[in-house]
Structure formats: C-alpha cells, structure tokens
Amino acid sequence: MQNLPIDKHTRWSTFQKGSKSKSKSKSKRRILWAPFGTLIGALITTTLGGPTMAQQKATVQTIELTSPAFSPQGEIPARYTCEGKDISPPLKWGSAPPGTKSFALVIDDPDAPDPRAPRMVWVHWVVYNIPPTVLGLAENSGTPPGAQAGINDWSRGKYGGPCPPVGRHRYFHKIYALDAELKLESPKKADLEQAMKGHILAQGELIGTYEKKGAGK
Asked: Contact 202/123 with Cβ under 8 angstroms?
C-alpha cells in the first residue's frame, strides 16, 4: 500500500492531541496521589517532632512571687534557717489566672551539698492543693487550711529551712497555678511534678541565698 503524504499541519495536530492526552493522564495521577501526599506529610511531621497537643496549648503565664523578708537573689534572714527559728518565710504571689483550681508550692536547693560541685537537689518544702483564693503565706504559717503537705528530703511533711553544710546556696521558691486539684497522698516533689504535667496555667519563682554562719567551724 502506498503511503500517503502527511503535511506539516497534520503532524502538528497529531502531536498536540498526544500531548493533551499525556497531560490529562498526569493530572489524573496527581489528583489520585494528592491525598496520599498529605497523609505522608502529616506522618513525617509527627515522627520528626511536629507540635504535639501539649505544645499547642496556651503558653504558661507568669506569676510574681515575692517575700517581704528578702529580695530576689538576696540573703534569706537567719530566722528562717536551721541557725535561727527554722520557720517558713512570708510569701506573696499574684492573683490566680482564670480557671485556677489550686496552687502548689515547692522550695528546693539545687546546690547541695556544695555549690562548687552540686550533686543533688535538696527539697525543703512541698505544699499542694492550696485554695485558689489564697494568695500568700504568712511567716511560720505551716500548711494553710484546705491545702495538703508533701514530703521533703528530711522525710517530713513540713517546712525545713536552709542549712547548707558549705558555701552559699540558692533556694528556689516556686509557685504553680493549676487547673485541677491533685489526688495525691503525701507526695515527694517528683510525684507532685509528675501530677502537675498538663495542668500548669501559670508559675512564678523567687530565689534567695544563704551561707551558714557556723560552716567550717
């Protein structure tokens, strides 16, 4: 059979039809793969450290925590230490943010036993389920009404004042506003911190220092 001559116009039309067909085929493949691409992207984001539900929660607010007995980074008076009356210092904190159901208070010393070579955090006081209407503690107040005491590192459910064996230590006074009351029985600090996870609305911190006058004698 004799081949009929094909002019340039016919070749170009045939080429355009083929290109359009391939283009439609690729578009269909893209549409089919789109949902899978979105799913894979989400999985990769989660696996590689994408934002968790906890991270998406509102940023924790700051509460101002102060004491009329000492200034931030100032020296804690001896009356609140083992060299004095060993009573708890007066503390004041800001108003509770909306949704606060309780406060928790922790006092600890991260410089134990020697601030030049600290090896542990010594816990001095743990108080939790402080009513949201309580915005401070008076000197030597003990556990306020309605609140509960945790266990410090002397295995006591009450305040124990600074008593550093050597050097000047820092004492962190920390207040937490929580969106729940905690169901705990005589917890240690680690137990309290675990129970507070996901419930902290606001927190504040006050650091005082103390060096034992009779150290080294």
From this structure: no
